[in-house]
Amino acid sequence: MARGDGCLTLLLLPIWQYFQGRLAGANSTAGTLSTNHTGPTDTFNFNNWVTLLSQLPLLLFTLLNSFLYQCIPEAVRILGSLLGILLLFALTAALVKVDMSPGPFFSITMVSVWFINSFCAVLQGSLFGQLGTMPSTYSTLFLSGQGLAGIFAALAMLMSMASGVDAQTSALGYFITPCVGILMSIVCYLSLPHLEFARYYLAKKPSRSPTHELETKAELLQADEKNGIPSSPQVATLTLDLDPEKEPELEPELDEPQKLEKPSVFIVFQKIWLTALCLVLVFTVTLSVFPAITAMVTSSTSPGKWSQFFNPICCFLLFNVMDWLGRSLTSYFLWPDEDSRLLPLLVCLRFLFVPLFMLCHVPERARLPILFPQDAYFITFMLLFAVSNGYLVSLTMCLAPRQVLPHEREVAGALMTFFLALGLSCGASLSFLFKALL
């Protein structure tokens, strides 16, 4: 994807016309973008395979990241992953200009999908680990940013179709755009240590000493005084604690935090297992039908402009906009809370979307009937499907750190990232079954 929860899926599917031409062995420079959902791509099951191979490495390397973070510095993992993704996207962009038969092109594309998502898994796990030390508000903002990535991809698809450019030019622009975005991300990450706010929360990580943490707090509080914020009793107390003459009295207080540096993964899992299960089920439902089934839905109206733009707007753009809106809602309220049993019920109700989408207007079917032929049905289902996905994903990611002790939050964030990838992989695997049942 163009976001953390499966890096390539949402980026590749909006330009399926380009892959359709390449996998058919046609010259991708000829003609303009097609809007027919049938074609040679079905021979390779492109939608299903790109989804599955986006999620499996995400699951595997998210698990491996639990061990990597102990032996590889965080900066190396984040910057190394960004550089790896940048190089692979540059290679994918270069392949646009290389003539190749469909079989080798499909194989190279799938290998690229695998490795890019492997780097994405390490990157995502490292970033969620950092977010675990910060307030839950920043987890919401991070997830909302992921939602915006899908919106940009869908809008780019619509602009390409409206402009009438050929598929090769469109694909080249698609693959160059993330290269620019990754370069900007690298610059932003390198500037992070220069922000006082970031230094404060990064200093709270177990790898730092408690004395260093207190020094960082003191610097921030002193900076507030310089900015005109009145000093408080906490400032005075902190200053006294940092006085070298008081240092022997400080040491006994630091013994207890030092004992909490290595939280048990098993204990943390016992506290968040229900929230983690809910996250798995949310993504299992989403990836089982989107985009493998939803991308096949067509308009029931007569051929025209609306039928041409129906799926790009009502499937990709609508999903990403409403998914982003759902993720953003958790900035204002978190309901139900971590102690409520209503959350599992809401998550299980989403399984109703699987038969609803399978019974929409999908012309290519052999078994199931079409019970919801009108476009309004599909649009309504997609609205509820996307909003519930975004909201429940963001809600579970925000609730998990609140169910554990402060020193266990980084482990909770890493575990939730693993279960996120597990849900994506389960959904991608089920998409083959549901497509066959049509």
UniProtKB/TrEMBL annotation:
Major localization listed first in the record, in broad terms: membrane
Membrane topology per record: Multi-pass membrane protein
Catalytic function, reaction form: hypoxanthine(out) = hypoxanthine(in); thymidine(in) = thymidine(out); guanine(out) = guanine(in); cytidine(in) = cytidine(out)
Keyword Transport in annotation: yes
Listed GO CC annotations: apical plasma membrane; basolateral plasma membrane
GO biological process, one term: hypoxanthine transport
Membrane-spanning residues: 49-68, 75-96, 108-129, 141-165, 171-192, 272-297, 309-330, 342-364, 376-399, 411-434
Domain of life of the source: Eukaryota
SUPFAM superfamilies assigned to the protein according to its UniProt record, in alphabetical order: MFS general substrate transporter
Record keywords: Cell membrane, Glycoprotein, Membrane, Phosphoprotein, Transmembrane, Transmembrane helix, Transport
InterPro entries: ENT1/ENT2, Eqnu_transpt, MFS_trans_sf
One Gene Ontology MF term: adenine transmembrane transporter activity
Intracellular or extracellular location(s): Apical cell membrane; Basolateral cell membrane
Record-stated family: Belongs to the SLC29A/ENT transporter (TC 2.A.57) family.
Its job: Bidirectional uniporter involved in the facilitative transport of nucleosides and nucleobases, and contributes to maintaining their cellular homeostasis. Functions as a Na(+)-independent, passive transporter. Involved in the transport of nucleosides such as inosine, adenosine, uridine, thymidine, cytidine and guanosine. Also able to transport purine nucleobases (hypoxanthine, adenine, guanine) and pyrimidine nucleobases (thymine, uracil). Involved in nucleoside transport at basolateral membrane of kidney cells, allowing liver absorption of nucleoside metabolites.
Protein's name in the database: Equilibrative nucleoside transporter 2
Organism: Marmota marmota marmota (Alpine marmot)
Name of the gene this protein is made from: SLC29A2
